[in-house]
Design brief:
The chain is of the alpha/beta class. The protein is 53% helix and 11% strand. The chain contains 10 helices and 8 strands. The strands form 2 sheets. The chain has a 6-stranded parallel beta sheet, with helices on both faces. It has a two-stranded antiparallel ribbon with strand order 4-5. The chain binds ligand PTJ. Ligand PTJ binds next to helix 2 and helix 4.
Length: 258
């Protein structure tokens, strides 16, 4: 691996790539995860590679929802572990919620490797759907295999870099799902209770900060933050921000005729 100079204008983005590549070498990330990351990079580029005010609003609502949940669980896959392992451990501590490894390209070996990686970063509790497993009904992918005392019994699940199937099924089971997804058009984004259209590398630390900041609020104050949030509207606002930014950069503020 080459040393990336701090002065490089795309330092942050290049470091994220290095984390994913290192995760691949460690057997945490699958090759398909590189493609998913590339798609995320492109979408982040369109957003201006910064947390938008729209994403900030969703993050605050997500923090309030997590704080009013009885059994929140943080679902971790390969890309998330490689990109924001440390930040997820901090979030888990701040919230007092377990991490659970849940994979699309599942193998028991990789589940254990990701668990060990999170434990090495200081995680207190990492659930693995290997023993005492349950299945998410109606879901055919490997993501259906979950820990009985974790995602299966959770009332709220935080997911990131997800394909849409599981989110839809979890919501159908009556669970609240918070998704972090740079794609405001994805099925996950549309199906989730709250979608944060942001890069996990910016969002997860911000979410931990919001949780810490909101901890002193009463339950009814937190519930009113959640109630005041409209996911469909928030997704439309994210798309509108991208459209506005592109219109400004292109110099075509008015739509071109066909
Ligand atoms: O580790 P596994 O086996 O669970 O596999 C993980 C991947 C990511 C390979 C798997 O879940 C997958 O194929 O995901 P998708 O269907 O490609 O969806 C990933 C979504 O996350 C897409 O909508 C991407 O735009 C989005 N995304 C990519 N990078 C980021 C991101 N969202 C937030 N932050 C990112 N850094």
């Amino acid at each position: 691996m080459v040393e990336i100079p701090r002065s490089h204008p795309r330092y942050r983005s290049l470091i994220e790539r290095e984390r994913i590549v290192k995760g691949l070498a460690m057997g945490i990330v699958v090759p398909e995860g590189l493609l998913a990351h590339g798609r995320g990079e492109a979408l982040d580029y369109l957003l201006g590679e910064e947390t938008t005010p729209v994403a900030r609003k969703a993050t605050r609502a997500a923090a309030a929802l997590l704080l009013t949940s009885e059994r929140p669980v943080i679902s971790v896959n390969g890309n998330a572990a490689a990109l924001v392992g440390e930040e997820l451990v901090r979030l888990s501590r701040t919230l007092g919620a377990p991490l659970e490894v849940n994979l699309f390209y599942r193998s028991v070996e990789r589940v254990r490797r990701i668990r060990d990686h999170l434990l090495s970063l200081g995680a207190e509790e990492v659930l693995t759907p290997v023993e005492d497993v349950a299945e998410v009904p109606g879901l055919e992918s490997e993501r259906r295999i979950v820990s009985r005392k974790g995602i299966y019994s959770a009332d709220t699940v935080l997911v990131m870099l997800e394909d849409g199937d599981r989110t839809e099924k979890l919501v159908a089971l009556g669970k609240r799902v918070i998704a972090v997804d740079l794609n405001p058009l994805s099925r996950t984004a549309k199906a989730a209770t709250i979608t944060i259209v942001d890069n996990v590398t910016r969002c997860i630390p911000l979410l931990a900060d919001e949780i810490a900041a909101l901890k002193g609020q009463t339950r009814s104050e937190l519930e009113s933050i959640v109630k005041g949030f409209d996911n469909e509207q928030n997704l439309r606002e994210s798309l509108a921000l991208i459209a506005k930014r592109l219109a400004r950069l292109s110099g075509y503020e008015e739509p071109l005729s066909d």
